[in-house]
Amino acid sequence: MTNRPIPVEQANAMISEYISYMEKLGVDMAKQTQSVSFTSKEFYTWLTSVMQYMDELRVCIGVYPDGTSSGRITTILWPYKDGKPARKPKVEGKGGGDDDEDVEPYNDGHTTP
């Protein structure tokens, strides 16, 4: 089931299962993050800018610290290369040294509800 599209019915069933699981734990899902959305243009721009430095994209689950969205669950889209967070050269054409910079993860999504 990995690395391929899944049927809509299966995706809907998985989402329903998550909601059911959380409700059994006593979580009020009307107040809990159920999805995080990203606009396609901005996401595509970011993804194409980091694609050359990565070989996988991890979707990490996080919780916002104190501030505007305190306590809300979110996702962090983190580029990885060879099993480690992706890095890019400070100077184009050079790389692989201590001067490399982290490729910044992506998260400026809109949570619902």
The helix-strand sequence is: HEHEEEEEE
Cα shape: globular
How many domains, as an integer? 2
Low-confidence stretches: none
What separation lies between the terminal Cα atoms?
Answer: 28 Å
Largest sheet: 3 strands, antiparallel
Topology diagram in text:
Blueprint: H1 8-24, E1 35-37, H2 40-50, E2 56-63, E3 73-81, E4 84-85, E5 87-88, E6 101-102, E7 110-112
Antiparallel strand pairs: 1-7, 2-3, 3-4, 5-6
Account of the 3D structure:
The chain is of the alpha+beta class and 113 residues long. It folds into two domains: 1-32; 35-112, no CATH class. Helices cover 25% and strands 26% of the residues. The chain has two helices and seven strands. It has helices spanning 8-24, 40-50; strands at 35-37, 56-63, 73-81, 84-85, 87-88, 101-102, 110-112. The strands form three sheets. It has a three-stranded antiparallel sheet, with no helix packed on it. A hairpin with a 2-residue loop joins β3 and β4. The longest helix is centred in the first third of the chain and has 17 residues, at 8-24. The relative contact order is 0.18. The mean pLDDT is 90.
Compose a concise summary of this entry.
By secondary structure, the protein is of the alpha+beta class. 25% of the residues lie in helices and 26% in strands.
Notable traits:
single chain, 113 residues, alpha+beta, three-stranded antiparallel beta sheet, two-stranded antiparallel sheet, 2 helices, 7 strands, globular
